[in-house]
Amino acid sequence: MRRLTSVAAALVAAVCSFTTAGGAALAAAPPPGLQITTDFPSITTEAGDTVTFDLEVLAPTPTPVTLEVSGVPDGWEATLRGGGFVIGGVTAAPESPPVAELELVVPPEAEPDTYAIGVRAAGGSDSATLDLSVTVADRPVGGILLTTDFASLRGRPSDTFQYDLQITNQSPQEITFAFDGQGPEGWTVTAGPASEERASTVTVEAGGSESVRVEANPPANAAAGSYDLLVTANGGGLTGSFALTAEITGQPEIELTTATQRLDLSGGAGKVRESTLVVVNSGTAPLEEVALSADAPTDWTVEFEPAELPTVAAGASEQVTVRVEPAANAVAGDYAIGVTARSGSDTAEVAYRFTVETSRWWGAVGVAVIVAAFVVLFVVFRRYGRR
Fold it and tell me: Which of 60, 169, 359, 377 has the highest count of CB atoms within 10 angstroms of its CB?
């Protein structure tokens, strides 16, 4: 009995001794060293996006800590920020630890995969490492659908070609699309939401559609012909393009002049005088059905040969003979005659100055009358002068 009691006492003493030693060991354990943590060490994103990790750095005592990022893939950009600045370290503390931000810019060409990135904190003789992962997801299922009722428009070089398109977001998420317009050299092509004249992007909800206005302005000297335009929409890793056509019909430019570059005629009353008019088309499209007309004084006659030109090709000219006959009783002096060439809504005008000259016959008559008057006076003087 005494032996059992002794054994029990020994066991109790051993247990107490172990407990005391363990408690002393626990009490003597050092506080945790340098630590770096984040609430979300694994993030999923898409190519072209930017992700941010919030980092907390803790230390038993205030300690300057440097931060280094490793494992950043080629083409990615990694930046440590704090307090609005780019930083390379923090001062760690046990209470109110500083928060640093790790900003990662994922390039648009990043392949879908999971990428491991490390952040190392070093202060004094202590260090800690935080393992992060960024998963680049596949591009959204679906795509972009661009449609229009009128993909080809016709107009002159002075016109603005306006196309109304619909963009449909066939992906499962909302996407903001930016647009780019391309055309031949000298053309200006812009695209944006139809509801916002100055905006260049449009946000389309998943499965939704928005109206897009495309405007194309050709150069003033664009020749007649068909021109290809291209509109591209980019957003959320998706790209869609749509081909448009602008057909320049050309624009005629009518000019009117004379073969001698002179616009003055002269002649007697009732006498026909001729001049050669030149109808010039300096535009990029033919002039059709060019009619000529004149505004002349009363009882004057103005005729054209031919009176109408069926067509004048772009860059070409045609001659017209104009015949002017003053009224038989026209008094000597200068008269204005307006000539107009008209083709549709295009017109050109010139003004002739016609000088009606005094007839030489009337000059001779005048001289004869004066001579006759002198003769009569002489005869009268001889016959009656001595009385």
Answer: 169
Query: 377: part of which helix (H) or strand (E)?
Result: helix 360-384
Q: Which domain holds residue 310?
A: 254-360
Number of folded domains that form the chain:
3
Question: What pLDDT sits at residue 177?
Answer: 94
Judge if 237 and 279 occupy the same domain: no
Indicate the pTM of the whole model. Answer: 0.44
pLDDT at 8: 39
Residues 171 and 244 in one domain: yes
Kind of pairing, strands 301-305 and 273-281?
A: unpaired
Among 136, 152, 185, the domain boundary falls at 136
Edge-to-edge strand list for the sheet holding 63-70: 42-45, 126-136, 113-123, 63-70, 89-92
The CA angle 181-142-174, to the nearest 5 degrees, is: 75
Mean per-residue pLDDT, 278-283? 92
**How far is residue 22's CA from residue 15's CA, in Å, rounded to a whole number?**
10
Average pLDDT over residues 237-252: 89
**Tokens found for residue 366:** 């005048």
What CATH number should be reported for the domain holding residue 149? 2.60.40.10
